[in-house]
Amino acid sequence: MKPIIIANWKMNPASLKEAKSLFSAVSKKIKKTSSEIVFCPPSAYLFLFQKKQGFKLGAQNCHWEERGAFTGEVSALQLSSLGCSYIILGHSERRKQGETSETVKNKVNSVLESGLMPVLCIGESREQRDRGEEQKVLEQQILESLEGISQNKLKTKGLCIAYEPVWAIGTGMPCDPEEAQKMMLFIKKVVSGIYPLDKIKILYGGSVNSKNAEEYIKESGYDGLLVGGSSLDPEEFSKISKLF
Ligand code: PEP
After folding, report:
1. What confidence tier does 155 reach under pLDDT thresholds 50, 70, 90?
2. Which of 19, 94, 232, 233 is 20 to 30 A from 55 in CA distance terms?
3. Could you give the CA distance from residue 119 to residue 87 in angstroms, rounded to a whole number?
């Protein structure tokens, strides 16, 4: 199976000029790979990626309604019409700004209805891990974010779940691959109570770089990676994409 490598550019870079040069450097370098590469730039730069070959396009968030009086929002359907096929949902940087599992659930539903692949992010904070609550937190996030979403909805696309421990994001302190594997098996156990596992892909995210990327796929058994900081470095990101 092709690993899925998702580049989360977050709110970077700061200008269209920089975005153009980053895009051009990255797209030249990642030509030879058998992984599924997905770029999730800020929505303002999505147009740069349209009609380009060799990778998929994604967004970092969406609203759950298709259209209407929701100033400042963008819908899954609109993102689909721009060529997006993946949408990251419930990222911890959004949960920190008040996004709840209830809104994430509505978004997952809308992304599936629009025929796109949701990438549901879950992960515990440092404090929750120190209190030994990591499994409880993940279970709660999974069950609440998927509540009422039937197996039938997953029939065409399926669902990606990204395990992203909050303490590993952007810190340079990735989760140990053995621990990451334990968490992945736990996620599978929880999800298997709701959906057939062949509809679910589990990704790891949190300080992934070209030196540790392989471990999560080949040793821990993840189906892919969600890459933040390293996706903004063309050299580093191309090395990651060529590992598989
Ligand atoms: C992310 O933001 O999803 C992420 C994993 O970031 P980083 O790779 O920088 O830790």
Report:
1. confident
2. 94
3. 6
